[in-house]
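Protocol step 4 of 6: structure prediction from sequence.
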Amino acid sequence: MRRPRARVIAAVLMAVSATPSAQQQAPTMFRTGVDAVMIDVSVFTGNMAVANLTAADFIVTDNGVAQTVTTAGVEALPVDLTLVLDASGSMTSVIDRVQRDVRTIAQGLRPDDGLRVITFATLVSSQGLMRASQAGAVNLPETGGSTSFYNALLSALIVARRTGTADRRQLVVAMSDTDDSTSLLGPKDVQNAAATSDAVLHLFKVSAPYGSIPAAGWHPYWMSSDPAVLTALAEQTGGQAYFGQVATDIPSKVAQVLAAFRTSYVLRYTATGVKPEGWHDVVIRVNKPGKFTVRAKKGYVGVSR
């Protein structure tokens, strides 16, 4: 018998909530419940990443209170990349191409990076975290069934948090080719998970209709959800949603996201003048002349000390 939707949501969100094991393993790239706060921040002018910024170049407010950034550096930590891929029935004609793309993406990872592949149709499955060199063993499942995209997205954020460690960074790249049709969870549930996850999430919208897939390249199209909702999901984590483009080369798109992620800064500050518990809105700006785009997690959940 199917459990009520509210009960399913509660069970999933309990997995996202602070449990002893999850708290101990949560990456310190974005730490909650303590005075020291660490946040991944990407800075761009146009499409170009901005290099050589220092702590003095950032203005940070925590719940409206100005904070002093102690360090702001680019840290060459290993990356665990989670790919969230559609394996529903509509992907049957391109699934072999997608599998080749996964292996090409893995070739762009460094030896100490990790790769996790989560696929979804009616159900969600994960092949677990592996080294990039093991990507040749990835076998995507036979396609079929409906599309539980939100369930898969929530799963990716939960797994990235629970298995992450302080010396690794978490990046999630998700794609789908059609509307979500079977998830018991929705955007709000994913947003709740994103608020407590250390992973940076990127979502791809590809505008080409499925029927116009050419002989070369992988051209999925995106769910028809409100673009503002999808954008909010990605930006909650410091990531981005991409609209109005045709994905003729998925590996190169992921390579661009990964390269920008590696050049992001890690900002550290000691939260002062704010209560530790509850939600903290964090606003980050660049303290230099010019027009900059800053992408960072929107805030964090603190707990009483």
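Step 5 (inspection) to follow. The helical segments are 5-16, 20-25, 95-107, 149-163, 187-196, 227-236, 250-262.
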